[in-house]
Amino acid sequence: MGKLARRLASQGVNYAGQASPLLRRLRKISALERREEARAFLELFARETGMSRPAFEKRWSEIGRALRRRNFYEHTQDELAFGARVAWRNHGRCIGRLFWESLEVFDCRKTTEPDAIADRMVRHMRDALGDGRIRSMISVFAPVEDTVLPAYIESRQITEYAGYTLDDGSLLGDRQNVEATRIAQSLGWRAPEPRGRFDVLPVIIRDRSDRRVLFSLPPSAYREIDIRHPAEAGFADLGLKWYAVPCISGMILTIGGIDYPCAPFNGFYMCTEIASRDLADRKRYDLLPDIARALGQRPETAKTPLWRDTALTELNRAVLHSFRQAGVTIVDHHAASDQFMEFHRREQAEGRRVAADWRWVVPPQASGACEVFHLRMTNFHPVPNYYSAETSDGRRLMPFYGDRHRSRAEQAFDRLRRRWKLWKRTAW
């Protein structure tokens, strides 16, 4: 690390020359690309909010000057709220976008210290859960300012379960979180004794100097639902449970060329997320054999693998029953499919194409019986949007002009420009 980097780090400021994990995840776009995204976002904001042309020109002049001077500009509160909602509307991996306009946006850009971020997230989780009728919310913290990186939440979700490697080499808990659990223990977290399959992990926050800070969630910040089957008493003996509010904290919000690496947001669960993926995936809890035995089946001696289908269906039934008995918002995959189709129709009526990733939107359970299974989808990665990392999904993000009336020549030019940007952003 050079002298300048050391001096900035001592002041609590991160510097682009450091090998920061966040820096490796951020999109690499040029000043011209940032300016293009800012212009495209402001035009979208003006078009959909009814901004007058003089007001647009004045605001664009302010943004242009800021970009030339600092390669950065600040969104107004209205722009931030609009951008966060449109990012949800544009995100091709989400099936639940029908309610994008109801997203509650909280401007937390002045909250920069880890303690204050943790306090805000405790309030966020409490307010999101409420009395069980879950509210979709996002808390947006400080953005990246050119080469200065803000504090951010390293944990992928605010509520996660620990995963342990036992002495005999077997795994206990959530296999996906074995490394996150090891990191938390190295930072001083002590797992409860005896260790269980559903131990809530603390939240890891990185401050502006890229140092990890550990915060344990108070019990009032989350609620767990015991999984019970409406007809099979054996389910209770398995001791299954899951948390009520999924709050994603490991994604980066990008609006008009400005990235917000700390923008935790929550919706509510679709039953297959818990039953068909979290509890059933082999790289997660891998509980299908246990579920089958609780149903009176013997997977070891079964002549066909269809016992898995029965176990998955009954596990989904148990999750739905348990959440509804607890009065907590949840949706089944058939209702979610219908909601997406309604969202698709509304967007078409507004003259907007829908970006969608078939592999993520189609539910993993009873896929062919859901209408979305038969819908042709293309994910063209429009901005604003959310992304996990530059190498996974951030590289393809760029303005989409296909909703406008354009000549064939303009359409061809757009395609060539997208290909050029992708080629330039690829590390050959």
Question: Secondary structure elements and their pairing?
Answer:
Elements: H1 3-10, H2 21-25, H3 31-49, H4 53-70, H5 77-90, E1 104-107, H6 114-129, E2 137-140, E3 152-153, E4 163-165, E5 171-173, H7 178-186, E6 203-206, E7 212-215, E8 224-226, H8 234-237, E9 241-243, E10 247-248, E11 252-255, E12 258-260, E13 265-266, E14 269-270, H9 271-278, H10 288-294, H11 307-326, E15 330-331, H12 333-349, H13 358-361, E16 385-387, H14 390-394, H15 408-425
Parallel strand pairs: 1-2, 14-15
Antiparallel strand pairs: 2-13, 3-6, 4-5, 6-7, 8-9, 10-13, 11-12, 11-16
Helix pairs in contact: 3-4, 9-11, 10-11
Architecture overview:
This protein has 15 helices and 16 strands. It has helices at residues 3-10, 21-25, 31-49, 53-70, 77-90, 114-129, 178-186, 234-237, 271-278, 288-294, 307-326, 333-349, 358-361, 390-394, 408-425, and strands at 104-107, 137-140, 152-153, 163-165, 171-173, 203-206, 212-215, 224-226, 241-243, 247-248, 252-255, 258-260, 265-266, 269-270, 330-331, 385-387. Helix 9 crosses helix 11 (307-326) and helix 10 (288-294) crosses helix 11. The longest helix has 20 residues, at 307-326. The protein is globular and about 70 Å long. Mean pLDDT is 93; it is low at 1-12.
Question: How would you summarize what this structure contains?
Answer:
The chain is α+β, with helices and mostly antiparallel strands.
Tally of strands: 16
Count the DSSP helices.
Answer: 15
- Cα-based radius of gyration, to the nearest Å: 23 Å
Helix content: 40-55%
CATH class: Alpha Beta
CATH architecture: Alpha-Beta Complex
**CATH H-level name... which superfamily?**
Nitric Oxide Synthase, Chain A, domain 1
Q: Which stretches are low in confidence, meaning pLDDT under 50 for 5 or more residues running?
A: 1-12
Mean pLDDT: 93
Reading side by side through the largest sheet, how are the strands ordered?
1-2-13-10
The third-level CATH topology is Nitric Oxide Synthase, Chain A, domain 1
